[in-house]
Amino acid sequence: MSRTQKTVLVVGVDTPLRRLLLKELQSAATSASLRVTSSLAQAKVLARPLAPALIVLEESAAGGSPLQQAARELAWLAPVVVLGGPQQQGPLAPLMAEGSVDFVASVGAFAPVAAALVKRRLRGAHFAQTLSGSPVFASPEELAETLRHELNNPLTGILGNAELLLARRDRLPQWAVLRLEIIADLGARLRETIRQLAETWTPQEKAQSASST
Q1: Contact 122/54 with Cβ under 8 angstroms?
Q2: What are phi and psi of 104, to 5 degrees?
Q3: Beta partners for 7?
Q4: What is the mean pLDDT of the chain?
Q5: Which of 17, 54, 172, 193 would be 176's cystine partner, CB 3.0–4.6 Å?
Q6: What gap in Å lies between CA 43 and CA 79, rounded to an integer?
Q7: 182-202 burial string, b = 16+ CB within 10 Å, else e?
């Protein structure tokens, strides 16, 4: 496996979903491989040497453990996408609020939704890896500008759409309102973090501004 190749660890036994994930991974923004295990215990053993970019946990693989407990244990090792019944969203809400877990309700045609989420997560991991590689940027100012453009622009769209939907909360089910509030809260927190990082990484701009006054 190359140094840039990422691994997705699937914990479960849903073969059609596995095939769909493989198809999506082949067209992902960065190369990725898929490892599968049906055992939660084995997943925790595999995750350490594999260092997966993402873990997909099916509810059936949690065994006798509460799903939120299984997700928390795996979230120490990598971000987790949980696939479970709609009733699991409430117990998983604290982990979702932390940003360590995503949830897809395993009802109806949920497999394409799960595969698309995995694909987006991989793209995000690829972008984060690019940001962390200091040779890519000529200066801290260039890194700050990339943060502002590449993160703030889509984040503004995410927050705007979440707020538009929340304005019609009386027409939405309670679980949808809860998920939208989590999106809005995490988005606002991320925007503030971006602002602080951008200010930290623009020392020359600050110095020039101070000298011109």
Answers
A1: yes
A2: -125, 125
A3: 33
A4: 76
A5: 172
A6: 13
A7: bbbebbeebbeebeeebeebb
Q: What is the pLDDT of residues 9-29, one digit of tens each?
A: 888 876 676 677 666 655 554
Read off the amino acid at residue 15. T
Three-state secondary structure along 59-104?
HHHHCCCCHHHHHHHHHCCCCEEEEECHHHHHHHHHHHHHCCEEEE
How many whole angstroms separate alpha carbon 200 and alpha carbon 192?
A: 12
Distances from the Cα of 95 to the Cαs of 80, 102, 109, 110, 191, in angstroms?
10, 8, 24, 21, 20
Both structure tokens of 170: 């009386």
- Both tokens of residue 39? 């055992």
The residues facing 80 across adjacent strands are 55, 101
Kindly give, in sequence order, each residue whose CB lies less than 8 Å from that of residue 44, ignoring residues fewer than 6 positions away.
73, 74, 77
Higher pLDDT, 74 or 64: 74
Is the pTM higher than 0.85? The answer reads no
